[in-house]
Design brief:
about 625 residues; five-stranded mixed sheet; about 5% helix; 37 strands; mainly beta
Length: about 625
């Protein structure tokens, strides 16, 4: 895979003969205007109005390919996405943590360059600004949405590389479920779910316990996932819901290098809780949502670092169908986040604590509007603008503009211009000696153009090219006037570009093929932004049985920026077999079935071949 053109032409060669085969579910005429989607719980529109790369992954696919987190499907499905995963189960947080989402050259460690949403609202640790991948799990996930490219116009801070939205909700088809799973390395999973709808009211509760000893010493993980929710359909136009979760977990990870003289590794105890209240309205002309949400946490690490953080937010949007040619969306969001940290053991040479233990908070407010205009049939225009203010103080204006042209009901050309920003977090500004209170926000400008061909709902091919201009990157740089030796500074600029291709193809009712290929030049931001990735998912379904083979090739991977710490190319293949019955579902999954030794961190082998068998009772 050293030559990306060879891989690209090979993929084209696989796709080209498809015109000779008529898929079983192909309709005589498929029109993209017939498909209506709700984008990241923020606005409703048809596919014709989406001039960028947008992917929806179903709950079924989440259960099929995931081990322990819904975020895993992002890595396995989207062409340029890469999620750092180095263990059998669990990501952890901190310097030894993983689970970072990298998308189109953006991500970072901490993972502040891609915005993760829960039901349309941002979810991140209040001091460090990164998402909490071990909190999300895979229970009650209805779908996962991926919006690639800067998306700050609608979603605000941190949406530099894109947005991942996890849509949750109860499965009322089965009032009671018990799932048990066990496998290699002492891995075990047990969950109970209850969901019941009583007239216009729905209730659901679930509990999950998962643990593993890990594939090498000091890689154990254990967690509980407790979730509950209530929903009530007030009338035909209004729906109210409340939901929450509590996730305590513990992780262990080996440390490398001479600093760990006691060979105790890195371990921590985390407690996270989330909650949300949502009021939805749906009418002939006006559709929207208003929600209040929170995210609270306590992180305690082996070295004495102890942090309490919080996030409180409010958001509201309305989407108006003005006429057959005009649609308008507008919204407002308010956010207050921060926390306090301390470390009683770590001291500076002058005896002062290494961690600033003051309370650090940031508040922000954003106002945005989008307009969709169809001046003539098959031509669709989109434009939007956000004004965003935070208490640093700082402000940001983020525009977006896009165009789609439907050359045929099944063939579309699209192009767009987008901007994104990432404000400095309390960690960057205050927390450690390297903090710098004079930092500005990172900014990214991006253009994308491409084409999409859909000959049925489930059969499509998409190609896109993107170019990023990244400014004011916050990096740890040598301090010209020490102490301290290094400071966070706005320095450097990156010019990135790449292209992606996706294919979903159902030649018959029993076969489904999905292929994804990406090539990327990340400039100096090479850490976990591979040059090439080729991903595949082949499914065969007959009656109540299903076989899936899925995996990926990775080429040109580095563990550091500026092409530092190169890692060997690798190919990981996985397989899943499941049997679905009225009451009992059984599954058998094998990961890394080829037994490949590969690395996503220097001197840290990823898991070899491991398997899981599970049973799910439904009533």
């Amino acid at each position: 895979m050293k030559n990306h053109q060879v891989s690209f032409y090979l993929l084209i060669g696989l796709i080209f003969p498809l015109h000779a085969i008529t898929p079983a579910d192909t309709t005589s005429v498929y029109d993209m205007q017939d498909s209506i989607v709700v984008v990241a719980n923020r606005y409703q529109t048809s596919l014709k109005n989406i001039p960028y790369s947008y992917e929806v992954i179903s709950s079924e696919e989440v259960q099929l390919v995931s081990n322990h987190s819904a975020l895993e499907v992002v890595d396995k499905y989207f062409p340029s996405a890469f999620i750092l995963e180095k263990k059998v189960m669990g990501y952890g947080v901190g310097t030894a943590g993983s689970g970072q989402v990298y998308l189109r050259g953006q991500g970072g460690h901490p993972n502040t360059g891609v915005l993760v949403l829960l039901n349309g609202h941002p979810d991140f640790m209040g001091l460090f600004g990164h998402p909490l991948p071990d909190v999300y799990g895979k229970d009650n996930i209805q779908q996962v949405e991926i919006l690639a490219g800067p998306a700050s116009t609608v979603f605000g801070d941190h949406a530099m590389g894109g947005v991942v939205n996890l849509v949750t909700g109860a499965n009322y088809k089965h009032p009671f479920q018990v799932q048990m799973e066990g496998g290699s390395y002492g891995t075990a999973n047990f969950s109970v779910k209850m969901a019941k709808r009583l007239g216009n009211t729905g209730l659901h509760i679930s509990a999950r316990r998962q643990q593993t000893d890990g594939h090498i010493a000091n890689t154990s993980f254990q967690s509980y996932h407790l979730q509950a929710g209530f929903s009530h359909q007030i009338n035909d136009r209004w729906e109210f819901s409340v939901s929450g979760r509590f996730v305590p977990y513990e992780f262990d990870d080996p440390s490398r290098g001479n600093a760990d003289v006691a060979d105790i590794g890195t371990f921590g105890k985390i407690r996270r809780g989330t909650g949300e209240m949502i009021l939805k309205n749906k009418g002939k002309k006006l559709t929207g949502s208003t929600q209040i949400y929170t995210n609270l946490g306590h992180h305690l690490f082996f070295d004495g670092f102890d942090a309490h953080d919080y996030t409180y937010g409010f958001s509201s949007y309305q989407f108006m169908n003005v006429s057959s040619q005009w649609n308008v969306a507008a919204g407002i969001d308010l956010l207050h986040y921060g926390g306090r940290a301390q470390n009683s053991f770590a001291k500076l040479p002058n005896g002062q604590p290494i961690v600033n233990n003051d309370l650090h908070t940031i508040s922000s407010a954003g106002l945005y509007a989008l307009a969709f205009y169809n001046p003539i049939p098959r031509l669709n225009l989109k434009s939007g603008l956000r004004y965003h203010y935070n208490s640093l103080p700082a402000s940001n204006v983020s525009p977006v503009a896009g165009i789609t042209l439907d050359l045929h009901p099944m063939l579309q050309l699209f192009s767009n211009y987008q901007q994104g920003f990432r404000s400095p977090t309390p960690r960057d500004l205050y927390l450690f000696p390297s903090a710098n209170e004079n930092l500005d926000a990172e900014n990214i400008k991006s253009i994308e153009f491409g084409t999409a061909f859909r000959w049925s709902i489930e059969n499509k091919i998409r190609f896109s090219y993107y170019y990023n201009d990244v400014e004011n990157m916050i990096q740890l740089m040598p301090n010209l006037s020490p102490p301290p030796r290094s400071l966070f500074q706005n320095s450097g600029r990156a010019f990135q570009h790449g292209y992606e291709m996706q294919l979903s193809y159902n030649p018959t009712m029993t076969w489904n093929f999905q292929l994804a290929y990406s090539y990327m030049d990340p400039d100096e931001l090479t850490a976990y932004n591979p040059e090439q990735q080729l991903k595949y998912n082949i499914k065969y379904t007959v009656q109540k049985a299903r076989l899936a083979v899925f995996g990926k090739f990775v080429d040109g991977l580095y563990a550091g920026n500026n092409s530092q710490s190169p890692l060997p190319d690798y190919h990981v293949m996985n397989a899943s077999v499941s049997l679905v019955n009225k009451r009992f579902d059984t599954s058998f999954k094998v990961f890394n079935i080829l037994g490949k030794t590969y690395y996503v961190l220097p001197e840290y082998p990823a898991p070899g071949t491991h398997a899981r068998i599970g049973i799910n009772y439904k009533w």
